[in-house]
Amino acid sequence: MTSPLSVRTITPDQHLGFVRAQDSVSFLQVPAWGEVKSDWRRESVGWFRGEEVVGAGLVLYRQVPRLKRYLAYLPEGPVIDWEAEDLAVWLDPMVSHLKGQGAFGIRMGPPVVTRRWDAASIKAGVADESVRTLDQVPPLTREPAGARVVSALRTLGWREQKAEGGFAAGQPQYNFQVPLAGKDEDAVLAGMNQQWRRNIKKAAKEGVVAGRVPADQLAPRLEEFHDLYVHTAERDHFTPRPLSYFQTMFRALGAEDPDRIALFTAEHEGDLVAATILVQVGTHVWYSYGASSTDKREVRGSNAAQWAMIRHALATGATVYDLRGITDTLDEDDSHVGLIRFKVGTGGEAVEHAGEWDLPVNRALYKAFTLYLARRG
């Protein structure tokens, strides 16, 4: 008979030890991410079978105004056996622990895949005027394990958090990934569309130099990245994060593992034309943030920076290069289609995850908090 599981607070070192024993986990579930999200209270929790740690999670607590009650949030986590026959065995002790910590509600993002689409299908969907969303394109595969998790969560009373455009309440439900397992540079290039291959060649021909910024040059180069990132935000109409956020991100993640986070730059004749941030946990590499200059766009610095990161991922033995979120829209008139086209050009696949799920622990407080968030916009 399987031993019952218990959940309790663990140290960041215990948490990191568990992470290092896995092939990979989301970078949002490493202990250092709690330091990055400094406006949330953080806790590392472990699932124990006897004295053995068999699961772990980073919990971020957001306080209700004027009350010592919290929304407990596990972004893209926890890291447990999601293929277990009875998920309640894993989730019930977590709920009990978080309730004891003052949680009125729990939000989590099970790191399980439900559907996948290949690049060719998405490209055809964009070209088809009758197709408006990814849902209208037949998936390449449906993952039975993901379907079981979604069904089990509904049965256990968890509520799926849907948001317009396919973005869940916190993290994107749809991501675009390039599988790297068993591939070399030539194979990855061959999987890209003609435009991407042409742009990578053009960048090299124009003399664009792209690569990882050495640790001893990081501080000033990060400031240059941020200047370019603010410029990108103004051009593309989004609100930029402050420089201090990225400084904290590099300090915290870099202290946990020197290869956890890296800055890549693409330069042309001394001018910074693109800069990107890479995060890696185990065999999974993420393109986390990017910036590009409006000037000299013809030298294709963004493609050069991406290709430098993909080559780095291959060199480290990564099995996935993750370009993070896309929306589910394939409508030609939607402004997000340009981003989808850029990512689809890498020849990878769109991946749908189970999304984010809430469990109200105190229904009255949970309802009041969701209304408060809605009023804040």
Which features would summarize this protein structure in a list?
16 strands, Aminopeptidase, seven-stranded mixed sheet, 2 domains, 12 helices, nine-stranded mixed sheet, 377 residues, 36% helix, alpha+beta
Describe the overall structure.
It comes from Nocardioides marmoribigeumensis. This is Vancomycin resistance protein VanK. Belongs to the FemABX family. With 377 residues, the protein is of the alpha+beta class. The protein folds into two domains: 127 residues, 3-Layer(aba) Sandwich (Aminopeptidase), CATH 3.40.630.30; 223 residues, Aminopeptidase (3-Layer(aba) Sandwich). The protein is built from twelve helices and 16 strands. Strands 7-6-15-9-14-13-12-11-10 form a nine-stranded mixed beta sheet. A seven-stranded mixed beta sheet has the order 1-2-3-4-5-16-8, sandwiched between helices. α3 links the parallel β4 and β5. The longest helix has 19 residues. The radius of gyration is 21 Å and the shape is globular. The protein starts with a strand and ends with a helix. 42% of the residues are buried. The model has no long low-confidence stretch (mean pLDDT 94).
